[in-house]
Amino acid sequence: MLRVVKEIYDYNIRTTDGKIGEVNDFYFDDQFWKIRYLVVDTSKWLSGKKVLISPIALGEPNWVDRELPVSLTKVQVKESPDVDTDKPISRQQEVELHEYYSWPFYWDYEALANVGKMVNISEKKKAKIYEGKQDLHLRSMKEIVDYNIDAVDGEIGKVQDFVIEDKDWFVRYMVVDTRKWLPGKKVLISPEWVDRISWSDSRVYVDLPQEKIRNSPEFDPKQPVNREYEERLYDFYGRPRYWI
């Protein structure tokens, strides 16, 4: 099912032996547009600490009670490697985190072939991973909110939110607020239609004209994004559907 990200903020994270905190943010990679970590604010339990938890550790969400269970213990989370979520996350920090929890490396194809198992990589391979001190494709969702959206012929709005799959945690859409041009109207744009993101000047460039975006099916955050709406959206843009 597709869900608006803002609805998931402040969800409780429950370990096997109790609650540890609330969802504060998400990190996704802008190559595959997939959620890689939940940022959990544990300040009510561990003063001043935020932790990263991979969707790999998630159980079946309790959407009614706004709760996400994880297959971890409080002790595991408490003793996990420190990661400063206010700074860019380095690949070395990711390696340490994944080794600590025995999570597969999502960036390593060997790991993808061994889902659920830790892949033992050589020191030579680790050194290669460490060469890139920062994972330039790992981004905070909250960071991108309010980025300008540029169509092929000019600015058209701002990023307001995201829509994600609640099973595989792929980012399916950016929610674009066009109020400067079309008062009150919000539209969805698929990451597949994004040309590039300029992190230096906070802009997202899409390969669509302004007029097309202006006339696209309106998005109502109060209504679920169902397949019927998606079909209308993709038919309107004449783009191949991701679910086929």
Task: Please provide a written account of the structure.
With 244 residues, the chain is an alpha+beta fold. The protein folds into 2 domains: 2-139, PRC-barrel domain (SH3 type barrels); 145-237, Photosynthetic Reaction Center, Chain H, domain 2, CATH 3.90.50.10. It contains 7 helices and 13 strands. It has helices spanning 74-78, 91-101, 109-112, 123-131, 141-144, 210-214, 227-237, and strands at 2-4, 12-15, 18-29, 34-41, 50-53, 67-69, 138-140, 148-151, 154-165, 171-177, 186-189, 194-198, 203-206. Strands 1, 8, 9, 10, 11, 12 and 13 form a 7-stranded mixed β-sheet that branches. Strands 2, 3, 4, 5, 6 and 7 form a 6-stranded mixed β-sheet that branches. The radius of gyration is 19 Å and the shape is globular.
N-C termini distance: 16 Å
Q: Indicate the CATH topology of the largest domain.
A: SH3 type barrels
What is the overall number of helices? 7
Low-confidence stretches: 109-130
Task: Quickly give the structural class.
Answer: alpha+beta
What is the overall silhouette? globular
Beta-strand fraction estimate: 25-35%
| DSSP strand count | 13
Q: Using the CA coordinates, give the radius of gyration.
A: 19 Å
Helix proportion: 10-25%
Total discrete domains: 2
Classified in CATH, the superfamily of the largest domain is PRC-barrel domain
Element-level helix/strand string: EEEEEEHHHHEHEEEEEEHH
What is the CATH domain class of the largest domain?
Mainly Beta
CATH architecture of the largest domain: Roll
